[in-house]
Amino acid sequence: MCYKPGENITVDEQLFLSKTCCRFFQYVPNKPDKFGIKFWLAIDVNSKYIIKTFPYLGKDHSKSNVLSVGENAAFWLVKPYLKRGRNTTSVESLKENGLSYVRTISRVKREVPNSLKKTKKNYIQRPS
């Protein structure tokens, strides 16, 4: 591997517009480009460089049902960085493998303390 990513990695999916007909062609009604091929991407947050990617080919029935399709994809994408102290914005199961994770939370959930619900400007400050 020639490129060494920073400590923050994000995992996301991207639908690339395509008019090709194939078995893994996707229709996503809430996207601007509704038809295309979905790719899973691991991206270095600081440089915006794509570290690793692969197309979504449908649900893999040979994998265990413990993890969802997204969790399996995220785990595979960040596998080279496990136990190396990286931060990722993906799934909770990665925490057990030496990655910290960051995710969005909804303020309307009961579990969120009132002190966090009353923050200004829609962001939470780190504790000092």
Description:
InterPro entries: PGBD. It comes from Stegodyphus mimosarum (African social velvet spider). The chain is built from two helices and six strands, in the order ββββαββα. The chain is mainly β. It has one domain (8-109). The radius of gyration is 17 Å and the shape is globular. It starts with 7 loop residues before the first strand and ends in an 11-residue tail after the last helix.
Question: In terms of topology, how is this protein built?
Answer:
Blueprint: E1 8-17, E2 25-27, E3 35-44, E4 50-55, H1 69-77, E5 87-89, E6 100-101, H2 114-117
Parallel strand pairs: 1-5, 5-6
Antiparallel strand pairs: 1-3, 2-3, 3-4
Features:
2 helices; 6 strands; 27% strand
**Fraction of residues in helices?**
10-25%
Which percent range describes the beta-strand content? 25-35%
Structural class: mainly beta
Cα distance spanning the termini: 37 Å
Instruction: Outline the low-pLDDT stretches.
Output: none
Query: In oligomeric terms, what are we looking at?
Result: single chain
State Rg. 17 Å
Q: What general outline do the C-alpha atoms trace?
A: globular
- Main beta sheet, described? 6 strands, mixed
Number of domains: 1
Q: Helices and strands, in N-to-C order?
A: EEEEHEEH
What is the number of helical segments per DSSP (H or I, 4+ residues)?
2
Overall mean pLDDT stands at 74
Total DSSP E strands: 6
